[in-house]
């Protein structure tokens, strides 16, 4: 199912002021003129490749991009990402990466970098794992890029309020790599869990910083069900059957960890919404949008299930750390749309499409990103 371009959509938006017992409702004319995104590999449309920090950027080689673009674009998938489907929903062009330079960026730009973290690199050096970071372009660095660009988009406060008031900001997903780096380096679950409030604090502070720069419509995603990731399932396999959810085969403790992150994030966003009642701060439930794949994969057309990768080097989940997608020893499936997972940690275009549909037209954005009738 293709997304239709919506040039204009008048909707009634009800912002729930969570700390109070009433709803604050007002009518807006939803016609976003631009889209700006921040985050990591779930959103990057080419910045990591442009940086050139990796000596073997497999995302710059086939089969990445095979489904939609017919070539690698720097996206960590076989095709489009959630941010691409959101752009198409609102009749906007797919976002160019900030580091591509040149071109028309008045309709939006992508600052996300694959491998990026919410916390700055100094934190990871302090805990002894700074040397494994793919990039130093954390969320703070991405915000600096945005603020450097801002004078090219508007000058006066009124001009910026008018321009950014019609823009949609996607703040993430970000934070997943803060945990990935720590887990893969052998940090215990309890220690990594202690980082979560720090990560949430940075994400919320970044959201507020964008608000203070004029943003009025912001989507802040939560974490995916990482316990269902083929990479985690491979690297943290357990002989104890009790470690797995018997209904979907995912690792229970890792999914509980993701839920903890998401719960804290929602709580802090509620506080921020109360502080800025005339700003739409929308929580995007990536966990809720993706977890149904693992329970009913056939319903989404994922006839090969949700826990095996389309592109990989073998093993129970077709994920092999020494033969990752795009490297020697890996093979790609013939029909990526029959898989939910692309390369072990990133999803296929088909899965991102299903998630985007759920976020845009379902119940996995709070308050709803699209709403066509009054409550």
Unreliable stretches (pLDDT < 50, length at least 5) are 1-29
Going across the biggest sheet, name each strand in turn. Answer: 4-3-5-6-7-10
Question: Could you tell me the mean pLDDT?
Answer: 90
Class by SSE composition: alpha/beta
Instruction: Give the terminus-to-terminus CA distance.
Output: 28 Å
SS elements, strand count? 10
What's the helix-strand series?
A: EEEHHEHHHEHHHEHHEHHEEHE
Rounded to an integer in angstroms, the radius of gyration calculated over CA atoms is 20 Å
Helix content: 25-40%
- Strand portion: 5-15%
Oligomer: single chain
What's the main sheet like?
6 strands, mixed
Output the number of helix runs: 13
The dominant shape is globular
Overall description:
The chain contains 13 helices and ten strands. The protein is of the alpha/beta class. A hairpin with a 6-residue loop joins strand 1 and strand 2. Helix 2 packs across helix 13 and helix 8 runs parallel beside helix 10. The longest helix has 24 residues. It is globular.
Topology diagram in text:
Elements: E1 9-16, E2 23-30, E3 34-38, H1 47-51, H2 82-89, E4 108-110, H3 121-126, H4 139-149, H5 157-164, E5 167-171, H6 176-184, H7 189-193, H8 196-212, E6 217-221, H9 230-235, H10 252-275, E7 280-284, H11 286-290, H12 292-295, E8 311-312, E9 331-332, H13 349-361, E10 365-366
Parallel strand pairs: 3-4, 3-5, 5-6, 6-7
Antiparallel strand pairs: 1-2, 7-10, 8-9
Helix pairs in contact: 2-13, 8-10
């Amino acid at each position: 199912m293709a997304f239709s371009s919506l040039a204009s959509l008048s909707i009634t938006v009800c912002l729930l002021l969570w700390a109070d017992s009433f709803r604050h409702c007002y009518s807006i004319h939803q016609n976003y003129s631009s889209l700006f995104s921040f985050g990591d590999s779930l959103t990057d449309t080419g910045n990591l490749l442009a940086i050139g920090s990796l000596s073997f950027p497999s995302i710059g080689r086939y089969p990445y991009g095979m489904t939609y673009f017919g070539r690698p674009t720097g996206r960590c998938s076989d095709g489009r990402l959630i941010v691409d489907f959101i752009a198409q929903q609102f009749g906007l062009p797919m976002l160019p990466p900030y580091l591509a330079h040149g071109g028309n960026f008045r309709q939006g730009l992508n600052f996300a970098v694959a491998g990026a973290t919410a916390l700055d690199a100094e934190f990871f050096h302090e805990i002894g794992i700074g040397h494994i970071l793919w990039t130093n372009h954390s969320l703070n660095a991405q915000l600096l890029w945005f603020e450097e660009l801002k004078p090219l988009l508007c000058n006066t406060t009124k001009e910026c309020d008018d321009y950014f008031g019609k823009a949609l900001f996607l703040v993430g997903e970000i934070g997943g790599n803060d945990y990935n780096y720590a887990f893969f380096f052998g940090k215990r679950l309890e220690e990594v869990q202690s980082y979560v409030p720090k990560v949430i604090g940075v994400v919320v502070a970044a959201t507020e910083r964008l608000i203070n720069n004029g943003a009025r419509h912001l989507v802040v995603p939560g974490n995916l069900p990482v316990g269902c990731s083929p990479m985690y399932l491979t690297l943290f396999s357990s002989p104890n059957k009790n470690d797995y959810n018997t209904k979907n085969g995912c690792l229970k403790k890792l999914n509980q960890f993701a839920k903890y992150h998401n719960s804290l994030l929602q709580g802090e966003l509620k506080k921020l919404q109360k502080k800025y009642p005339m700003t739409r701060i929308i929580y995007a439930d990536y966990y809720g949008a993706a977890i149904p794949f693992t329970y009913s994969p056939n319903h989404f057309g994922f006839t090969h299930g949700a826990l095996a990768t389309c592109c990989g080097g073998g093993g129970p989940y077709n994920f092999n750390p020494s033969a990752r997608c795009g490297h020697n020893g890996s093979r790609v499936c013939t029909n990526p749309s029959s898989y939910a997972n692309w390369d072990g940690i990133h999803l296929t275009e088909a899965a991102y499409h299903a998630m985007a549909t759920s976020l845009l037209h379902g119940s996995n954005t709070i308050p709803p990103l699209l709403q066509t009738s009054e409550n």
